[in-house]
Design a protein that fits this description.
Layout: E1 7-11, E2 14-17, H1 21-50, H2 55-67, H3 71-84, H4 90-101, H5 105-121, H6 125-139
Antiparallel strand pairs: 1-2
Helix pairs in contact: 1-2, 2-3, 3-4, 4-5, 4-6, 5-6
């Protein structure tokens, strides 16, 4: 275990030590990734001002928030998509995964079940199979 006094930056899954070129490069890459994520978020927000109920844009923004581990913001957008267009199948899988990650297994199961129903009605067997796999991994 690395003593915190020796670490210069701690991010979930990352610890960077003093005087390490490899760690400095990794830190730079991480900061650039965060910068690009923030730029994507800002661009998506601009587009959403013009089309606030665009499910694709809301879904893309939610996925950016998932990457930043901002589960509340992501969940709000996924739920907004479901309220706006219950037939937007992609939302069910990602919302279910988010719910699993935060420990809301029963809610995730319900979302997967609803998503499978929607995917089946839309004859979207690829999405149905993904939802069914996630459901079975959770239930069995």
């Amino acid at each position: 275990m690395i003593p915190q006094s020796q670490a210069i930056y701690i991010q979930p899954g990352f610890v960077f030590l003093n005087n390490s070129l490899a760690d400095a490069n990794a830190l730079l890459i991480l900061r650039l990734r965060m910068l690009f994520m923030n730029e994507r978020i800002e661009k998506l927000k601009v587009f959403l001002k013009e089309s606030p109920n665009d499910c694709f844009l809301n879904h893309a923004l939610a996925l950016e928030y998932v990457k930043l581990e901002d589960d509340n913001a992501a969940r709000e957008l996924f739920e907004k998509n479901m309220a706006t267009d219950a037939g937007y199948v992609a939302t069910y899988y990602h919302l279910g995964k988010l719910l699993e990650r935060i420990g809301a297994q029963q809610e995730a199961i319900a979302i997967y079940e609803k998503g499978m129903e929607v995917a089946k009605n839309a004859r979207d067997m690829h999405s149905y199979n993904e939802l069914q796999g996630a459901y079975e991994d959770l239930v069995y």
